[in-house]
Write the structure tokens for this entry.
Amino acid sequence: MAKAIASLLVLLLAACSDNSGGPAVPEGAESTASPPRPASPGAAASVSGGEPVSILLPRLPGSAVGDSAALQGRLAAEGPCLYVDTGSGRYLVAALAPSLTWDAAGRRLRSGSAYFPVGGEIMLGGSEAQRGAKLEWTTAPDPACDTGRIWIATSAAAR
């Protein structure tokens, strides 16, 4: 319980900061960590020419505020879909915060000046969408994406 409370406090502090939790890998900096590994065999999906498939980050109408539950896991890419794999399931990432974007060149999620590579650990603030909820997408998920569990992300922080 104490660990869950501490995680929520970290997430709340990250959401209140102006850089969405500080840089996991600052822009322009080299990471000293080993290269991220694909979270699943499909994570490095590519088209027939060998070019990586770009992620289509589903988006809802922008808002700087939202629910503040925390989802912790590893970023995983499968075709045009971005998920957080928690070890007991995966959630399709849908951006509510305008600061959450996909950096196709770096194959990483961007939150302000912080970057989170595919295969890396992440903590997303937000909430789970109710199954069957009618969401007002500004960018709908690709039809290939598993929409059984959707995480509506309001912030991102290093785990």
The beta strands are 69-78, 81-85, 90-95, 100-103, 108-111, 114-117, 121-128, 150-157. The chain is about 10% helix and 30% strand. The chain has a mean pLDDT of 74.
